[in-house]
Amino acid sequence: MAKLIYSMITSLDGYAKAAEGDLGRGAEDPEIHTFIGDVFRHVGTFLYGRRMYETMVFWEAVHTQPDVPPHILQYADDWKAAEKIVYSTTLESVSSAKTRIERTFDPEAVRKLKAESDHDLSVDGPNLAAQAIAAGLVDEYHLFITTTVVGGGTRFFPDGVRLDLDLVEEHSFDSGLIYARYRTR
């Protein structure tokens, strides 16, 4: 059975989206971006809300830009090889291959997808992830923690949820970014 992974870059104070500005230093560093690519290379299906999909669809055509570094091209190839499911009531069409739209998030359909999949799944975006967390579907949490305190925004973990987690991997980068991977008990 495949795992469902929730991962985001987060601020030091736990926000996946800052109320104002950005989250601080993130995956721009080639070492960090290569690490992220290596961690998520095995993901076979990405679950997105509309806004996250509109951010990530960049990877569909990045190869058309000049002077793209090899680690960026590798990430784009891996992303394009994966299936994508976009949960949206407003999105009319998608602009990437291997992508379909679902109008509602159905926990039972995701549970079945996990059971039938040979590759892990990733849920991206704090709002969609909150639904997966509430349904008890998330098996692992991958946090990329910046050195910035943003003071508000959309939290990585939804309010009103208690989770007991085990730290299974951690890595720090020269920039101060910390990667922490937790597994649900």
From TrEMBL:
InterPro entries xrefs: DHFR-like_dom_sf, RibDG_C, Riboflavin_Biosynth_HTPR
Gene3D superfamilies assigned: Dihydrofolate Reductase, subunit A (3.40.430.10)
Domain called Bacterial bifunctional deaminase-reductase C-terminal: residue spans: 3-177
GO function term, MF aspect, one: 5-amino-6-(5-phosphoribosylamino)uracil reductase activity
BP GO annotations: riboflavin biosynthetic process
Name of the protein described by the UniProt record: Bacterial bifunctional deaminase-reductase C-terminal domain-containing protein
Organism of derivation: Microlunatus phosphovorus (strain ATCC 700054 / DSM 10555 / JCM 9379 / NBRC 101784 / NCIMB 13414 / VKM Ac-1990 / NM-1)
